[in-house]
Write a structure and sequence with these properties.
single chain, mainly beta, five-stranded antiparallel sheet, 1 helix
Length: 184
C-alpha cells in the first residue's frame, strides 16, 4: 500500500492519496472518496514503479494526476460530482506544506523525492540590473537569456542561465552588469 498524506502549514489535513495493490489495483483520495476505486487505466507491468502525484489548482479547478512509470493512470477533477465526501473542498483547497508517508500504513514506498519547482522569475539580487524577455514560469532545464537592464552596461557573466528551480539558476559565470569607466 502507498499512503501519502498532505498537510497545510497549520498541520491540518489537506487531502491524501492512497494506492492498494489487489488483483485490481485501487486508489483512494482521502476526504473525497468514501470507498476504494479501481484505477481507470491498467498499471505498467514492471515490478518497480515510480509514481508521480500532481495536485494542481488552476482557474478554481482542483485536479489530481497520477503517473506510474511516466504513464498517466489517473486524472480526476475534484468536485461535488466526483467526490462522495461532501467536505472535500475544505481539505483539498488548503495550501500544502507537508507531504507525509505514513510509516506503518505505507508498505510499498522505498523513498520520496519532490519534483523540481518551476522557475518563477530571476534571482532577487539580479532584478535591479538584469532583465529577460522570458515569460515565467518556466520548467527546470529551460535556458533563459539575460541582458543588462541599463543599455550602457556590460554583462561580465553568462548571457544564458539554466533554470534549476524556483529562482535558482546554473551558469558558468554569474551574470553581473556594470557600466564601463569612461576612457580619456
Amino acid at each position: 500500500m502507498v499512503n501519502v498524506r498532505l498537510y497545510s502549514p497549520q498541520g491540518e489535513s489537506a487531502g491524501g492519496v492512497f494506492f492498494y495493490f489487489h488483483a485490481s489495483p485501487q486508489y483512494y483520495l482521502n476526504h473525497c472518496n468514501i470507498s476504494w476505486t479501481n484505477f481507470p487505466t491498467a498499471l505498467p507491468s514492471e515490478k518497480d514503479k515510480v509514481w508521480t502525484i500532481t495536485l494542481s489548482r488552476i482557474s478554481g479547478e482542483i485536479r489530481v494526476v497520477v503517473n506510474c512509470n511516466d504513464i498517466e493512470v489517473l486524472n480526476v477533477v475534484l468536485s461535488s460530482s466526483t467526490c462522495t465526501d461532501n467536505t472535500w473542498s475544505t481539505y483539498w483547497s488548503r495550501d500544502v506544506e507537508k507531504i507525509y508517508f505514513h510509516p506503518t500504513a505505507d508498505t510499498a514506498s522505498d523513498y520520496y523525492r519532490p519534483a523540481p519547482q518551476s522557475c518563477t522569475g530571476l534571482k532577487t539580487e539580479w532584478t535591479s540590473t538584469i532583465k529577460t524577455s522570458t515569460q515565467f514560469p518556466v520548467d527546470p532545464g529551460t535556458v533563459v537569456e539575460v541582458t543588462c537592464s541599463n543599455p550602457d552596461a556590460v554583462n561580465e557573466g553568462s548571457s544564458e542561465v539554466t533554470c534549476t528551480g524556483a529562482t535558482d539558476y546554473a551558469f558558468s559565470i554569474e551574470p553581473s552588469c556594470s557600466i564601463p569607466a569612461d576612457e580619456d
